[in-house]
Specification:
alpha/beta, eight-stranded parallel β-sheet, 9 helices, 8 strands
């Protein structure tokens, strides 16, 4: 079933859109099935769960961290993480930079923008993001590479609201690229869209979608 679901999602993707298979709370057997069907990019949001799965699964998987990352957990994932989607403060970026330098790596990061109506979501508002970039501390961080932005839309059935939030994220991404990253070929990722809204996100020029339940089914919280 997972293989069929995965293929169905892949067929619905536009050219150049990266599929991040959100595998949190799903057992390693399910990830292995998706891997065997050709999937190589997986998204996790809990450090401990990620560490267990990383050790149990093939070494060529690209692991993306997509959840809220606490600064005291950074050092555990920096040596191997392929992309951190959820950088929501200068403090967190600083911590990633420090551990990356200690490990002799450069960690790709997305800056999380808060565009949703829910206050429970993390991230910079568009103005806070510009303020942070204006301060310029990130320019001296040799252990991190900012490659784009990420957002989550409000969890609602109102597709117009979702579309407007994705449009705000895209406008912010384009403005930030033009203003701060115009010479950076790496700054190109706009990570937005999940199982319920990734088709809308694609229409709004998302380059990376984070899809879980459509591939793996509902989560099993007992793992």
């Amino acid at each position: 079933m997972i293989t069929q679901n995965l293929n169905k999602v892949k067929e619905s993707l536009k050219d150049g859109v990266c599929l991040v298979a959100v595998s949190k709370y799903h057992p390693t057997e399910s990830l292995q099935e998706a891997y065997d069907a050709g999937q190589r990019v997986f998204g996790e949001s809990h450090v401990q769960e990620l560490l267990v799965k990383k050790d149990a699964l093939p070494k060529d998987i690209k692991w993306h961290f997509i959840g809220h990352l606490q600064t005291n957990k950074v050092k555990q994932i920096v040596p191997f993480i392929s992309l951190i989607h959820s950088v929501d403060s200068t403090k967190l970026l600083r911590e990633i930079n420090k551990h990356a330098i200690n490990n002799g790596v450069v960690v790709d990061c997305l800056l999380q923008i808060h565009v949703a109506q829910e206050t429970t979501k993390f991230g910079f508002t568009p103005q806070e993001l510009r303020d942070m970039l204006n301060e310029g501390e990130w320019r001296d961080m040799k252990g991190v590479r900012i490659v784009g932005v990420m957002c989550m839309a409000t969890n609602t059935d109102d597709t117009n609201q979702i579309r407007e939030e994705f449009r705000l994220a895209r406008r912010t991404f384009e403005d930030v690229k033009k203003t701060y990253f115009k010479d950076s070929e790496e700054f190109k990722e706009l990570s937005m869209g999940m199982s319920g809204d990734y088709l809308i996100a694609q229409d709004e020029h998302s380059t990376m979608v984070r899809v879980g339940s459509l591939i793996f089914g509902q989560r099993d919280y007992s793992h």
